[in-house]
Amino acid sequence: MENDIKTVLFTAEDLEQRIQQLGRQISQDYAGKEIIMIGVLRGAVIFMADLARAIKVPVTLDFMAVSSYGSGTESSGVVRILKDLNEDVADKHLLIVEDIIDSGLTLKYLWNNLKSRRPASIRICTLLNKPERRKADVKVDYNGFDIPDEFVVGYGLDFAEKYRNLPYIGILKPEAYTS
Ligand code: IMP
Ligand code: MG
């Protein structure tokens, strides 16, 4: 698994440090409020587990699963809900937690979908952002790191469901997805 990584972009320590900063910022911004953190399965799970523990205001955790890439590396633009929230979110403060924003198509769809349920507020927190690849206009409230247009894996991010358990984020060697 480690041999398929070309370059390590963010070590476990880099991730830990940035997530503590995000947690402090979010805790300040939501002082006196409760947050429903909405994790986008499956990539956001590991980030969300660490981020939730860096936030000092009360949170509850809920999840959605949407179809995005299958096993390829390009967004199709077609989004389908595979698993919906368990809870009603009307009048609640929602924080969508994503692993990475690429085209933005997935988040644009999710944001509109959640908006129609009349929450008190919706914000977006993503660990990684590829600004060069944006096709849909989305407002990112909390962003861990901007990254170049390369396919990355680890810390929840997969290629064909693999590499999610790497403790760091790395760029995949092209031969690992073309062979
Ligand atoms: P978007 O709709 O194009 O913004 O795609 C977002 C989703 O695509 C993310 O939640 C990831 O699951 C996946 N994705 C986008 N870029 C990468 C990458 O570099 N590595 C792994 N997954 C990615
Ligand atoms: Mg994925």
Would you write up a description of this structure?
The chain is of the alpha/beta class and 179 residues long. The chain has a single domain (12-148), classed as Rossmann fold (3-Layer(aba) Sandwich). It has four helices and nine strands; from the N terminus they run βαβαβββαββββα. The chain has a six-stranded mixed sheet, sandwiched between helices. Strands 1-9-8 form a three-stranded antiparallel sheet. Helix 3 (105-115) links the parallel strand 5 (93-101) and strand 6. Helix 1 crosses helix 2. The longest helix has 18 residues, at 12-29. It is globular and about 50 Å long. The mean pLDDT is 93. Magnesium ion (MG) binds at residues 43, 68-69, 158.
| Quaternary status | single chain
- CATH architectural name: 3-Layer(aba) Sandwich
What share of residues are in beta strands?
25-35%
Order of helices and strands: EHEHEEEHEEEEH
C-alpha geometry: globular
CATH topology: Rossmann fold
